Structures are given as C-alpha cells and as structure tokens.
Amino acid sequence: MFIRFSTVMYDDVINLAEGLRQRLKLDHDDVQVWSTLHEVCLRMHCPAFSRDFYIKGVPVFVQWMMDTQEASLVTQILRHTYAYENDDEINYLMNMVYLLLEGEKPDIPGSVQLVQERRDWLVQGWSQLEEHISFSFESFVQFRLKGYRDCLERIVEKAIEEAKLEEEYQSFIDTLRQFVESRQYSDVTARIRFGEHCQLFSEDFRLKRTDFLLEDWPSSIYAYEPGNSRSVVMAALLSLNPQQLIVYGDEVGEPMIQTIRNVFQERAVLRAKGQFDEDTRQWHLKNA
C-alpha cells in the first residue's frame, strides 16, 4: 500500500505510521515514511494483509482521521460551506462540534445517530483499500470518504443551529436578569414546587394567586402562556421579584429551574422535590 500526503501532514503521517506498526506488529521496514519537495509518502507492507489489515489496521486509520484530520475538515466546512470568516466565531462553533462528537449534547435530535454514522462511514471508506493500492490522501478523502464528509457537514449544521439557540437563550436570560435587577427587590421569600404542575407559594407555604401578580404584566418582557403553569409561574416570579427564592424540584428534568437560577442567580436556592412536605411540616411546627 502506497499513500501520498501533502507536506504539511508530515508529523501526522509519522504518528499514523507508528500506530500501524504498533497495532499490526510491523517493523520500520514494513511501514516506511519519507518526504520529497512536494509530498510525504507512506508505504506499508503487511505480510498477513487479508487477515490483519481489516481487523487491526482499519481502526488505526479511523482513529487517526478523527484525532488529527477532523478539525481541519470541520474548519473547511465552516469557512467554505457556511462562509464563516471570523476566527472567534469559528472557534466557538468548533467547540460546539466537539461537544456533539463527544456525546455531550445527546438532547439534540439526531446527534447521537450522526456521530455513529460518521465512524461507520470512516470504517467503510478505509475498508475498501487493497494491499497493492496506490493513491493520494486528498483524493481518497474527496471521493472515497464523501459519505463521511457529508455526515460531518450535517453535524456542523446541527452545531450551528444549537449555537444560535444558545445565543438566543442567553439574550433572553440577559433581558430577564436586567429587568429584575432594575427593580426593587420585594422583601419576601417565595417557594416554587415543581411536579405535574408548577405552583408558587409564600414563605409560610400558602399558595399564591398568580393572577393578582400578573394584572399589569408587560408581555414585551416575557410573554407567558396562560394555560401553562410553568410559564405563568415564571412571569409571576418576575413580577414578584422576591428577595429569596426556594425551588423544590429536579434540575435535570426541569429546564425552567436552570432558567430561574440563571435569572435570579444567588437568590435562588435549589432543594429536592421531596423536601417540600418536610419543610412545610417543620415550618408549621415552628410557628404553631
């Protein structure tokens, strides 16, 4: 097998050669690397090619591609397909792509499947190689790995969409935070209990009327949904602007809890959902 690479890839090719030697138990004569003025060359001779290469060699090429070449391909997609030019924007989106590839964003629809497909396309592409084949790496990526590049492009697209959503969410949070910070805090403690419905209580565990709090609520700040208890309570909280806020619920399953904490910051205290009944009992015993 003989592969030609661009000269800028010399260090990457050296790493690839070392990985092949270790995994396939080959010596330096079996995996040779040298450079000319115009290219870097790798020649591999595997005595048991048909037996070892597809099982042991292909995973080396796949991992090498993901570790050393993927970042460059993603950058090309961002610059040429989506016309990003600002380095800060590109770095931000690159980080988002990495989060997807590392499984840190499983809630994004289709992301887990795409990450697996990306590996499958690489395995399929490198498995097409034959013992005596000769080719350039650039052509191989362009033609034999088209499915992989298309998959990467879809991953980048999802990363861009997620980045836009995060920017919109942050702008939303900033608007609400500025609103509550521009107003006088009320000297009350509010309690919120999350369950099938979201409920707002006073410090002494009495259910509060949200309609009173929302009589003159400016919808330009937060347009709540009247039939959605979580949305109504969020608007009521913004109107009440409590000095302290005790939240009973599970942050993992309740995105609104994270929003409350982002807006009210240190004023919001999170407690376990089941703690509400015990706190109620203790309060009434103390104030009986």
Task: Please outline the helices and strands.
Layout: E1 2-5, H1 10-24, E2 31-35, E3 40-44, H2 49-81, H3 87-101, H4 111-126, E4 134-136, H5 137-144, H6 146-181, E5 186-194, E6 198-201, H7 210-213, H8 229-240, E7 242-248, H9 255-264, E8 268-271, H10 275-286
Parallel strand pairs: 1-4, 5-7, 7-8
Antiparallel strand pairs: 1-3, 2-3, 5-6
Helix pairs in contact: 1-2, 2-3, 2-4, 2-6, 3-6, 4-6, 6-9
Would you give an account of this structure?
By secondary structure, the chain is of the alpha/beta class. It has 2 domains: 49-176, no CATH class; 184-286. 56% of the residues lie in helices and 14% in strands. The mean pLDDT is 92.
Number of strands: 8
pLDDT averaged residue by residue: 92
Principal-axes shape call: elongated
Q: How would you characterize the largest beta sheet? A: 4 strands, mixed
Q: Measured on Cα atoms, how large is the radius of gyration? A: 29 Å
Poorly predicted ranges: none
What is the strand content?
A: 5-15%
Keywords for this entry:
288 residues, 2 domains, 4-stranded mixed sheet, 14% strand
Structure summarized in a few sentences:
This protein is of the alpha/beta class. The protein has helices at residues 10-24, 49-81, 87-101, 111-126, 137-144, 146-181, 210-213, 229-240, 255-264, 275-286, and strands at 2-5, 31-35, 40-44, 134-136, 186-194, 198-201, 242-248, 268-271. The chain folds into 2 domains: 49-176, no CATH class; 184-286.
